[in-house]
Every structure is written in C-alpha cells, then in structure tokens.
C-alpha cells in the first residue's frame, strides 16, 4: 500500500496543478472590436477581458459613445478607474451606446471594460 500512495501522490499533485493552470486568470480577449463615436478615437480590436480602457489619448474628454462589435458585453463607466459605483450601462454584443448630443462633450464615456 505504501508504494501505491507514493505513486498516487505525485499524480494527484500533477492533476491539481493542471487544473489550476487551466482555470487561472489567463487573460482572454473578446473577438471583434469596439467602434467609438466621436471623440477622435476609432476602435479597439479584440479587447482584453477585464481591462479598464480609459486613456483615450485626447487632451479633453472622450467618445460620445460606441458600437459593440464584440462577442461579449461591454460595461460603460463614468470614472476612469472602472469603479463599480460608476457603472452606467452594460452594452450587449451588436448594440450601441450613445450619450445625448445635448450634453456631449461635457458628458462622455470615461472608461469601458469588456466581459
């Protein structure tokens, strides 16, 4: 019985490690792109899940909205740190999000997160 226990322990450890690596946080990307409306941006292609996109590279504001051409939902935030309390909307694949022309560029998309 001792020999079997010595052989079984490494096998169990190896299987446990394989399961851990298979489910650990390897970053996934959505397939497709997020196409921005106004704000001097074009699109983000195959955006990474869970990453807070917020640096628009502009000296003012950001996009008025976007079209979600990915296979995953995109969350819209009113803060650049993607704080849960600033979640504005969740945009499903194939849908769009647009702030009112009346308030844009005072109100704009501060950040998005895919997934």
Q: What's the total count of β strands? A: 8
SSE order, one letter for each helix or strand? HEEEEEEEE
Radius of gyration: 21 Å
Instruction: Identify the strand order in the major beta sheet.
Output: 2-1-4-7
Number of domains: 1
Low-confidence stretches: 7-25
SS summary, helix count: 1
**In what range is the share of β-strand residues?**
25-35%
Ends distance: 49 Å
Keywords: Plasmid, Signal
Signal peptide: 1-29
Would you give an account of this structure?
- By secondary structure, the chain is of the alpha+beta class.
- It is built from 1 helix and 8 strands; from the N terminus they run αββββββββ.
- The chain has one helix at 2-23; strands spanning 32-37, 43-45, 52-53, 65-70, 74-77, 87-91, 96-98, 111-114.
- The strands form 2 sheets. The chain has a 4-stranded antiparallel beta sheet with strand order 2-1-4-7, with no helix packed on it. It has a 4-stranded antiparallel beta sheet with strand order 3-8-5-6, with no helix packed on it.
- The termini are far apart.
Fold blueprint:
Layout: H1 2-23, E1 32-37, E2 43-45, E3 52-53, E4 65-70, E5 74-77, E6 87-91, E7 96-98, E8 111-114
Antiparallel strand pairs: 1-2, 1-4, 3-8, 4-7, 5-6, 5-8
Keywords: Plasmid, Signal
Signal peptide: 1-29
Please outline what is shown here:
Helix content is 19%, strand content 29%.
Give short descriptive properties of this protein:
115 residues; 29% strand; four-stranded antiparallel beta sheet; alpha+beta; signal
């Amino acid at each position: 019985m001792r020999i079997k226990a010595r052989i079984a322990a490494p096998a169990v450890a190896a299987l446990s490690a394989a399961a851990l690596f298979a489910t650990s946080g390897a970053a996934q990307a959505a397939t497709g792109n997020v196409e921005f409306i106004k704000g001097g941006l074009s699109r983000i292609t195959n955006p990474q899940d869970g990453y807070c996109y917020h640096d628009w590279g502009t000296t003012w504001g950001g996009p008025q909205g976007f079209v979600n051409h990915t296979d995953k939902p995109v969350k819209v935030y009113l803060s650049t740190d993607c704080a849960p309390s600033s979640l504005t909307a969740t945009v499903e694949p194939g849908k769009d999000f647009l702030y009112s022309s009346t308030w844009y560029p005072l109100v704009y998309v501060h950040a998005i997160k895919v997934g």
